[in-house]
C-alpha cells in the first residue's frame, strides 16, 4: 500500500479513496446546478457542498502530494518528482475545486433578454472542473483486476448522458418554463422529461418553448441531442459487440470448424470429439494461449510468472530436491504445455522415454496394456515419467488420460542444457542416476 512513505496509486486504499472521490464529485455535479436553480442557501445541500465537499477535496489535494504516479510504465516514488508532477498537472484544477463559492455572499446582477440573473451563484459551477478527474479515474479502473473495461466504458457513457440531461433540465427551469401550480420536484421532473424526449428526437410537443430565449435554448438542445443520440447508439453497439471478445473469437473458431468438418466429410464420432475438445478449451482457458502471453513478457517477468505457476510441483520431484532457486527458475522456463483428451495415451509401455510430465489439471492412470491392470492413478499436482530425464531406458508402463488433462512436459535435452549451467547439481543428478540403475525394481502401488 505504501512505498518509501508514499501511497501507491494502484493500492486498495487509493482505489477505495478514488471510489469515494468519484461519488463525491458526482454529487457535486448533481447538486451544483440544483443549488443554482433553487437557491438552496439555508439547508443541507448548501452546507454539504460548501463545507463537507470543501474538506473532502482538500484532503484529496494533500493526498496527491503523497501519492506515487506512473511514468512510461515505471512507478515514481520520489517526493520531489511527485510534487513537480502534481503542480504541472492537476494542482490548479484541484485548487479551484476547494474554493467554497457557496459561502461567498456577493452579487453580480446580469440583465439579458428581459430576464434578470445574479451571476454570483454561477461561480459555484467552477467547482465542476473537478469532473476532469473522472477520465483519470476511469483509465485507472480499466487496468484494475476487479472491473471489466467494457462495462466501465458503457457505464460512464450512460452516466455522462444522464448528467448532461440533468444540466439541460436545470437550464430549462432557469429560463422560466415551469408551472407555478407544481412543486419544485414536479417541475424538475417535467424539465428532465422534456430533455430526454428532445435528446431522443421524439418530441411529443406537450412541452414547448414560450419565448425567444427558450426557442434558442431548444435549438441548442436539439443539436446536442442529435449528436449524443447517434454517438450513444454507435458506442453501445460497439461495446455490446466487444463486451466478451473471447467468446466472439471462440464462436468464430467454432464456425470455421463446422465448415471444415462439412467440407472434409468427417465422421460423426470424430466430429463430436473435436467439438468436445474445443468446448473444454473454452470452459477451462477461455480460449487463451499461454505461450502467446508469456512471449509478450520480458524474460524476468516470464521467470517470475512461471515460478508462481510451477514451483510447488517442481519441488515435489525427488530429483529436484536440494536444487537452488536459480536452477528451478531455469527448469520452469523449459516446461512446455501439452493437452490430452480422455483415453489418449501419453506414452506406452516399451517406448524409450525422453520427457517427464507435470499434471496441471485432470488425472491419468498408470497401467499395463498387456494385463489391463491399473497400477496407479495420479491427479492434479502430480508428476510421472521422471526416470526418462536420468536414464535412456524403455517405459515400464503405459500412461493414459482419464479425463481432459492439461500437462507440462520437460524433455531430456532441455534438462541436460540446464544441468550444464549448474555443474555441482549435475554431479548430484548423475549420482542419483547411478543409484537408480542398480536399485531393484519396487512393487507398484496405487498413487493418488
Automatic annotation (TrEMBL):
It comes from the Bacteria. The keyword Transmembrane applies. GO terms for cellular component: monoatomic ion channel complex; plasma membrane. GO terms for biological process: regulation of membrane potential. PROSITE patterns: CNMP_BINDING_3. It is found in: Membrane. Keywords: Ion channel, Ion transport, Ligand-gated ion channel, Membrane, Potassium, Potassium channel, Potassium transport, Transmembrane, Transmembrane helix, Transport, Voltage-gated channel. SUPFAM superfamilies: cAMP-binding domain-like (SSF51206), Voltage-gated potassium channels (SSF81324). It is a multi-pass membrane protein. The chain crosses the membrane at residues 12-32, 44-69, 90-113, 151-175, 187-205, 217-243. Its main location: membrane. Residues 319-420 form the Cyclic nucleotide-binding domain. The keyword Membrane applies. GO terms for molecular function: voltage-gated potassium channel activity. This is Transcriptional regulator, Crp/Fnr family.
Amino acid at each position: 500500500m505504501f512505498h518509501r512513505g508514499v501511497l501507491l496509486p494502484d493500492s486498495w486504499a487509493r482505489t477505495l479513496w478514488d471510489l469515494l472521490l468519484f461519488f463525491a464529485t458526482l454529487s457535486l455535479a448533481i447538486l451544483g446546478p440544483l443549488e443554482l436553480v433553487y437557491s438552496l442557501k439555508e439547508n443541507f445541500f448548501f452546507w454539504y457542498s460548501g463545507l463537507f465537499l470543501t474538506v473532502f477535496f482538500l484532503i484529496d489535494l494533500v493526498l496527491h502530494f503523497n501519492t506515487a504516479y506512473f511514468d512510461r510504465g515505471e512507478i515514481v516514488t520520489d517526493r520531489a518528482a511527485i510534487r513537480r508532477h502534481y503542480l504541472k498537472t492537476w494542482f490548479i484544477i484541484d485548487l479551484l475545486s476547494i474554493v467554497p463559492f457557496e459561502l461567498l455572499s456577493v452579487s453580480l446582477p446580469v440583465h439579458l433578454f428581459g430576464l434578470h440573473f445574479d451571476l454570483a451563484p454561477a461561480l459555484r459551477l467552477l467547482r465542476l472542473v473537478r469532473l476532469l478527474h473522472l477520465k483519470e479515474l476511469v483509465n485507472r479502473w480499466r487496468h484494475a483486476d476487479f472491473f471489466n473495461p467494457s462495462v466501465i466504458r458503457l457505464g460512464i457513457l450512460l452516466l455522462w448522458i444522464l448528467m448532461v440531461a440533468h444540466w439541460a433540465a436545470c437550464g430549462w427551469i432557469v429560463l422560466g418554463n415551469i408551472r407555478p401550480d407544481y412543486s419544485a420536484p414536479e417541475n424538475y421532473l417535467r424539465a428532465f422529461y422534456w430533455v430526454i424526449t428532445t435528446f431522443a428526437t421524439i418530441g411529443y410537443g406537450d412541452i414547448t418553448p414560450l419565448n425567444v430565449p427558450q426557442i434558442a435554448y431548444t435549438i441548442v438542445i436539439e443539436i446536442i441531442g442529435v449528436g449524443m443520440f447517434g454517438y450513444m447508439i454507435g458506442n453501445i453497439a460497439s461495446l455490446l459487440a466487444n463486451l466478451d471478445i473471447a467468446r466472439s473469437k471462440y464462436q468464430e473458431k467454432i464456425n470455421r470448424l463446422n465448415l471444415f468438418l462439412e467440407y472434409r466429410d468427417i465422421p460423426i464420432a470424430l466430429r463430436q470429439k473435436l467439438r468436445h475438445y474445443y468446448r473444454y478449451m473454452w470452459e477451462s482457458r477461455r480460449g487463451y494461449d499461454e505461450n502467446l502471453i508469456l512471449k509478450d513478457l520480458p524474460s524476468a517477468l516470464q521467470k517470475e510468472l512461471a515460478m508462481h505457476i510451477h514451483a510447488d510441483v517442481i519441488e515435489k520431484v525427488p530429483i529436484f530436491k536440494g536444487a537452488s532457486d536459480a536452477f528451478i527458475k531455469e527448469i520452469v522456463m523449459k516446461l512446455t504445455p501439452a493437452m490430452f483428451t480422455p483415453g489418449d495415451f501419453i506414452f506406452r509401455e516399451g517406448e524409450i522415454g525422453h520427457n517427464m510430465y507435470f499434471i496441471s489439471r485432470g488425472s491419468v492412470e498408470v497401467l499395463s496394456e498387456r494385463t489391463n491392470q491399473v497400477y496407479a492413478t495420479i491427479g492434479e499436482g502430480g508428476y510421472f515419467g521422471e526416470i526418462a530425464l536420468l536414464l535412456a531406458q524403455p517405459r515400464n508402463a503405459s500412461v493414459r488420460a482419464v479425463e481432459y488433462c492439461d500437462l507440462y512436459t520437460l524433455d531430456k535435452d532441455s534438462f541436460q542444457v540446464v544441468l550444464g549451467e549448474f555443474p555441482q547439481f549435475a554431479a548430484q543428478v548423475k549420482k542419483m542416476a547411478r543409484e537408480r540403475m542398480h536399485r531393484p525394481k519396487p512393487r507398484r502401488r496405487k498413487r493418488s
